[in-house]
Design goal:
62% of the residues lie in helices and 10% in strands. It contains six helices and four strands; from the N terminus they run βαβαββαααα. The longest helix has 43 residues. It binds glutathione. Glutathione binds next to α3.
Length: 176
Protein backbone atom coordinates (compact mmCIF):
# COMPACT_ATOMS: atom_id res chain seq x y z
CA UNK A 1 0.00 0.00 0.00
CA UNK A 2 1.14 3.53 -0.77
CA UNK A 3 0.47 6.75 1.11
CA UNK A 4 0.46 9.80 -1.16
CA UNK A 5 0.76 13.24 0.43
CA UNK A 6 -0.45 15.75 -2.09
CA UNK A 7 -2.46 18.80 -3.06
CA UNK A 8 -4.39 19.91 -6.17
CA UNK A 9 -1.41 21.30 -8.09
CA UNK A 10 0.32 20.09 -11.27
CA UNK A 11 3.20 18.45 -9.37
CA UNK A 12 0.73 16.63 -7.12
CA UNK A 13 -1.42 15.53 -10.04
CA UNK A 14 1.56 14.05 -11.89
CA UNK A 15 1.87 11.38 -9.18
CA UNK A 16 -1.90 10.73 -8.94
CA UNK A 17 -2.02 10.24 -12.74
CA UNK A 18 0.90 7.79 -12.57
CA UNK A 19 -0.63 5.74 -9.72
CA UNK A 20 -3.97 5.57 -11.56
CA UNK A 21 -2.22 4.67 -14.82
CA UNK A 22 -0.32 1.85 -13.11
CA UNK A 23 -3.42 0.70 -11.18
CA UNK A 24 -1.54 0.79 -7.86
CA UNK A 25 -3.67 1.00 -4.70
CA UNK A 26 -2.95 4.12 -2.64
CA UNK A 27 -4.38 6.40 0.00
CA UNK A 28 -4.24 10.12 -0.71
CA UNK A 29 -3.63 12.53 2.18
CA UNK A 30 -4.38 16.20 1.58
CA UNK A 31 -1.62 18.64 2.51
CA UNK A 32 -3.28 22.03 2.07
CA UNK A 33 -0.35 24.22 1.04
CA UNK A 34 -2.57 27.33 1.10
CA UNK A 35 -2.91 26.79 4.88
CA UNK A 36 0.79 26.04 5.45
CA UNK A 37 0.25 22.32 6.18
CA UNK A 38 3.48 21.55 4.30
CA UNK A 39 5.33 22.89 7.36
CA UNK A 40 3.81 20.39 9.82
CA UNK A 41 6.63 18.47 11.57
CA UNK A 42 5.19 15.05 10.58
CA UNK A 43 5.10 16.03 6.92
CA UNK A 44 8.62 17.51 7.07
CA UNK A 45 9.90 14.10 8.18
CA UNK A 46 9.03 12.70 4.73
CA UNK A 47 9.43 15.91 2.73
CA UNK A 48 12.12 18.06 4.40
CA UNK A 49 11.92 20.59 1.54
CA UNK A 50 8.30 21.34 2.58
CA UNK A 51 6.87 20.57 -0.85
CA UNK A 52 4.20 18.19 -2.06
CA UNK A 53 4.09 15.54 -3.49
CA UNK A 54 5.70 12.91 -1.27
CA UNK A 55 5.00 9.21 -0.74
CA UNK A 56 5.54 6.44 1.76
CA UNK A 57 5.76 2.93 0.34
CA UNK A 58 4.24 1.05 3.29
CA UNK A 59 5.59 -2.33 2.12
CA UNK A 60 9.16 -1.19 2.76
CA UNK A 61 8.68 1.97 4.85
CA UNK A 62 10.63 3.91 2.18
CA UNK A 63 9.66 7.57 1.78
CA UNK A 64 10.36 9.81 -1.16
CA UNK A 65 9.80 13.41 -2.23
CA UNK A 66 10.23 15.11 -5.66
CA UNK A 67 7.63 14.23 -8.27
CA UNK A 68 10.17 13.09 -10.89
CA UNK A 69 11.88 10.70 -8.46
CA UNK A 70 8.47 9.31 -7.44
CA UNK A 71 7.50 8.72 -11.10
CA UNK A 72 10.76 6.84 -11.71
CA UNK A 73 10.42 4.85 -8.49
CA UNK A 74 7.00 3.40 -9.35
CA UNK A 75 7.78 2.97 -13.07
CA UNK A 76 10.87 0.94 -12.19
CA UNK A 77 9.16 -0.97 -9.39
CA UNK A 78 6.31 -2.08 -11.68
CA UNK A 79 8.54 -2.37 -14.80
CA UNK A 80 6.03 -0.29 -16.72
CA UNK A 81 6.41 3.00 -18.61
CA UNK A 82 10.23 2.84 -18.31
CA UNK A 83 11.90 0.88 -21.13
CA UNK A 84 14.73 -1.50 -20.28
CA UNK A 85 16.88 -0.78 -23.35
CA UNK A 86 19.35 2.03 -22.89
CA UNK A 87 18.34 4.44 -25.65
CA UNK A 88 14.53 4.33 -25.22
CA UNK A 89 15.09 4.49 -21.45
CA UNK A 90 17.15 7.65 -21.75
CA UNK A 91 14.54 9.09 -24.13
CA UNK A 92 12.01 8.75 -21.28
CA UNK A 93 14.48 10.28 -18.80
CA UNK A 94 15.17 13.11 -21.26
CA UNK A 95 11.46 13.97 -21.37
CA UNK A 96 11.20 13.73 -17.59
CA UNK A 97 14.20 16.04 -17.02
CA UNK A 98 12.81 18.46 -19.59
CA UNK A 99 9.52 18.57 -17.72
CA UNK A 100 11.11 18.83 -14.26
CA UNK A 101 13.84 21.35 -15.05
CA UNK A 102 12.32 23.18 -18.02
CA UNK A 103 8.68 23.67 -18.76
CA UNK A 104 7.43 22.81 -15.24
CA UNK A 105 9.33 25.55 -13.37
CA UNK A 106 8.78 28.05 -16.24
CA UNK A 107 5.01 27.62 -16.11
CA UNK A 108 5.24 27.88 -12.31
CA UNK A 109 6.95 31.27 -12.64
CA UNK A 110 4.37 32.45 -15.20
CA UNK A 111 1.64 31.53 -12.74
CA UNK A 112 3.41 33.31 -9.92
CA UNK A 113 4.14 36.60 -11.70
CA UNK A 114 1.09 36.84 -13.96
CA UNK A 115 -1.59 35.49 -11.62
CA UNK A 116 -0.49 35.79 -7.98
CA UNK A 117 1.80 38.82 -7.91
CA UNK A 118 -0.22 41.65 -6.34
CA UNK A 119 2.04 44.26 -7.92
CA UNK A 120 3.37 44.36 -11.49
CA UNK A 121 6.68 42.94 -12.67
CA UNK A 122 6.84 43.52 -16.46
CA UNK A 123 10.41 42.21 -16.75
CA UNK A 124 9.60 38.93 -14.98
CA UNK A 125 6.26 38.52 -16.78
CA UNK A 126 7.88 38.96 -20.19
CA UNK A 127 10.85 36.74 -19.38
CA UNK A 128 8.79 33.78 -18.13
CA UNK A 129 5.96 34.09 -20.68
CA UNK A 130 8.56 34.10 -23.46
CA UNK A 131 10.45 31.13 -22.04
CA UNK A 132 7.22 29.17 -21.45
CA UNK A 133 6.12 29.82 -25.06
CA UNK A 134 9.57 28.79 -26.33
CA UNK A 135 9.43 25.56 -24.28
CA UNK A 136 5.99 24.71 -25.68
CA UNK A 137 7.14 25.14 -29.29
CA UNK A 138 10.29 23.16 -28.47
CA UNK A 139 8.02 20.39 -27.21
CA UNK A 140 6.28 20.26 -30.61
CA UNK A 141 9.67 19.86 -32.31
CA UNK A 142 10.68 17.08 -29.89
CA UNK A 143 7.38 15.25 -30.46
CA UNK A 144 7.96 15.43 -34.25
CA UNK A 145 11.51 14.09 -33.75
CA UNK A 146 10.34 11.17 -31.60
CA UNK A 147 7.51 10.28 -34.02
CA UNK A 148 9.93 10.31 -36.97
CA UNK A 149 12.34 8.06 -35.06
CA UNK A 150 9.51 5.68 -34.11
CA UNK A 151 8.38 5.50 -37.77
CA UNK A 152 12.00 4.77 -38.78
CA UNK A 153 12.27 1.96 -36.21
CA UNK A 154 8.94 0.45 -37.35
CA UNK A 155 10.05 0.58 -41.01
CA UNK A 156 13.35 -1.11 -40.16
CA UNK A 157 11.67 -3.90 -38.22
CA UNK A 158 9.17 -4.50 -41.09
CA UNK A 159 12.11 -4.65 -43.54
CA UNK A 160 13.91 -7.14 -41.27
CA UNK A 161 10.75 -9.22 -40.99
CA UNK A 162 10.48 -9.07 -44.81
CA UNK A 163 14.00 -10.48 -45.15
CA UNK A 164 13.21 -13.33 -42.77
CA UNK A 165 9.78 -14.05 -44.20
CA UNK A 166 9.33 -12.46 -47.69
CA UNK A 167 5.72 -13.67 -48.10
CA UNK A 168 4.53 -11.97 -44.90
CA UNK A 169 5.44 -8.36 -45.68
CA UNK A 170 4.60 -6.49 -48.88
CA UNK A 171 6.93 -3.90 -50.45
CA UNK A 172 4.26 -1.21 -49.70
CA UNK A 173 4.22 -2.14 -46.01
CA UNK A 174 7.99 -1.78 -45.77
CA UNK A 175 7.85 1.68 -47.43
CA UNK A 176 4.91 3.02 -45.37
N1 LIG B 1 10.51 19.85 -7.67
C1 LIG B 1 9.40 19.57 -6.80
C2 LIG B 1 8.50 20.79 -6.73
C3 LIG B 1 7.33 20.58 -5.80
C4 LIG B 1 6.58 21.87 -5.56
O1 LIG B 1 6.98 22.96 -5.97
N2 LIG B 1 5.45 21.71 -4.86
C5 LIG B 1 4.65 22.89 -4.55
C6 LIG B 1 3.22 22.68 -5.04
S1 LIG B 1 3.21 22.34 -6.80
C7 LIG B 1 4.59 23.05 -3.04
O2 LIG B 1 4.50 22.08 -2.32
N3 LIG B 1 4.67 24.28 -2.56
C8 LIG B 1 4.62 24.56 -1.16
C9 LIG B 1 5.53 25.68 -0.73
O3 LIG B 1 6.14 26.32 -1.63
O4 LIG B 1 5.67 25.93 0.45
C10 LIG B 1 8.62 18.34 -7.33
O5 LIG B 1 8.58 18.17 -8.55
O6 LIG B 1 8.09 17.56 -6.53
Amino acid sequence: MIDLYTWTTPNGRKVSILLEELGLPYTAHAIDISKGEQFQPDFLKISPNNRIPAIIDRDSGFHLMESGAILMYFAEQTRKLMPKDEHPRYRVIEWLMWQMGGIGPMLGQVHHFVKYNKGKAPYAEERYLKEAARSISQREALVRRDRAQARGRARLSRAQEGERNPDAVTREQVRS
